[in-house]
Prior knowledge:
mainly alpha; 4 helices
Amino acid sequence: GLANDHSTLFAKALIDGIVCIVLASTLGIGVALSGFVIILYEGSLTLFASVLAPLLTDSVINDLTTVGSLLIIALSLNLLKVTDIKVMNFAPAVFMPIIFSLFM
Length: 104
């Protein structure tokens, strides 16, 4: 969204679509219906990327990546039944590097 190169977004949309079809065949219509929410979510991120571009410096993007990676690690530990972390309670933490960059 920031680089105006849509090839990565198209590839991700294709992968999401294929996975959605596979999951819908086993888990039912709810997966297909959640696809609309994903389209809205990912589309809004792409559209708002140009608005946030001045705030997203290299260090902020690195911090966002770090926070996102930690959330993925927490999710994987939950899937392995090692921990019981309420990951969605930490989802707003993804926006904290942007907020901190405003005050620094």
